[in-house]
């Protein structure tokens, strides 16, 4: 559905806002594009929506190249920028009718589409109010409605909960989860908990480079395994490293006099059982064998520390 290939975006000939970013997003997935402010999230979204031509690389939307066939690609996209493009002096209903006309929705289909987005965004109570009189939460709902009025298969949302109160954030999250059942959604945010609460998958951009591209379920299961065995076992780290799925093993100081390692692994099923069999075959007595939970915040903190060490 969405394909980004080796995207590079330079400003001023020297600063790289994006540096060789590639990813694919299939139909019907809610993806969180996360990273600190200035990481390149908005630049990525501007390229995907056709508002910015990349220095190099290409983006395709539903099979349409965003440079060579931009208008055809944009027909598949609904876009909500961080500052929703609203005419504040207009009534909500008049604004949505205007958007439907600009989207060239046929007259016979217009009322059906307007009714659908009004229901989806729960705007029935504010249709006759000027946009300027709405709360920030309702303005975001109007922004979502304008992005959806032409029934796009892809929604691209830039910081959709920015500036909202906790109740409004919960409402927008619920709305996005509902939309994800029918559409492909990209949600940009620097709030990591937002992605963990809403999305199926995370793309993490730090300093213009894509560092993480994984399903959220992978984070919930965790990649690291803590293995602790009774007594002193000299070859625990070496033997555990040979198990399929273990990528790296590091020794941990165990003040109880036993032997412990942290195993960095992939997310394959059955790995703990395999490690248990390895221990039995070696004659070890396992005290602890558990997955260590980590989340996006852990990974982001680690990447930030790596960047600070590289620049110090």
3D structure, described in words:
This protein has helices at 41-49, 70-74, 92-102, 107-120, 136-148, 166-179, 192-198, 216-221, 236-241, 271-282, 296-311; strands at residues 2-11, 15-25, 30-34, 56-61, 64-65, 77-80, 154-158, 184-189, 201-206, 209-215, 224-229, 246-252, 259-265, 286-292. The model has no long low-confidence stretch (mean pLDDT 87). Helix 3 (92-102) packs across helix 4 (107-120) and helix 4 (107-120) runs antiparallel to helix 5 (136-148). The protein has eleven helices and 14 strands. It is an alpha/beta fold and 312 residues long. The protein has a six-stranded mixed beta sheet with strand order 6-7-8-3-9-10, with helices on both faces. The chain has a four-stranded antiparallel beta sheet with strand order 2-1-4-5. Strands 12-13-11-14 form a four-stranded antiparallel beta sheet.
Fold topology:
Layout: E1 2-11, E2 15-25, E3 30-34, H1 41-49, E4 56-61, E5 64-65, H2 70-74, E6 77-80, H3 92-102, H4 107-120, H5 136-148, E7 154-158, H6 166-179, E8 184-189, H7 192-198, E9 201-206, E10 209-215, H8 216-221, E11 224-229, H9 236-241, E12 246-252, E13 259-265, H10 271-282, E14 286-292, H11 296-311
Parallel strand pairs: 3-8, 3-9, 6-7, 7-8
Antiparallel strand pairs: 1-2, 1-4, 4-5, 9-10, 11-13, 11-14, 12-13
Helix pairs in contact: 3-4, 4-5
């Amino acid at each position: 559905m969405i394909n980004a290939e080796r995207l590079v975006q330079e400003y001023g000939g020297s600063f790289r806002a994006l540096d060789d970013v590639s990813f694919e997003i299939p139909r019907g997935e809610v993806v969180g594009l996360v990273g600190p402010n200035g990481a390149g999230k908005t630049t990525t979204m501007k390229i995907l929506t056709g508002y910015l031509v990349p220095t190099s690389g290409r983006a395709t939307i539903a099979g349409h190249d965003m440079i060579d066939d931009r208008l055809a690609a944009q027909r598949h996209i609904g876009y909500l920028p961080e500052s929703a493009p609203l005419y504040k002096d207009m009534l909500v209903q008049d604004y949505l009718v205007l958007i439907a006309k600009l989207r060239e929705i046929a007259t016979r289909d217009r009322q059906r589409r307007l009714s659908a987005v009004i229901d989806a965004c729960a705007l029935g109570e504010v249709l006759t109010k000027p946009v300027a009189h709405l709360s920030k939460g309702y303005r975001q709902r109007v922004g979502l409605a304008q992005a959806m009025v032409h029934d796009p298969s892809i929604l691209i949302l830039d910081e959709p909960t920015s500036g909202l109160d906790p109740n409004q954030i919960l409402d927008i999250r619920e709305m996005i989860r509902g939309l994800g059942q029918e559409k492909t959604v990209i949600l940009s945010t620097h709030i990591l908990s937002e992605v963990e609460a809403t999305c199926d998958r995370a793309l993490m951009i730090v300093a213009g480079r894509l560092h993480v591209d994984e399903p959220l379920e992978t984070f919930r299961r965790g990649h690291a395994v803590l293995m602790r065995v009774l007594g002193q076992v000299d070859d625990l780290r070496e033997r555990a490293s040979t198990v399929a799925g273990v990528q790296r093993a590091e020794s941990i100081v165990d003040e109880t006099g036993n032997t412990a390692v942290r195993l960095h692994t992939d997310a394959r099923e059955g790995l703990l059982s395999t490690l248990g069999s390895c221990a039995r075959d070696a004659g070890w007595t396992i005290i602890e064998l558990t997955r260590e939970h980590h989340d996006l915040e852990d990974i982001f903190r680690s990447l930030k520390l790596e960047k600070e060490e590289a620049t110090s």
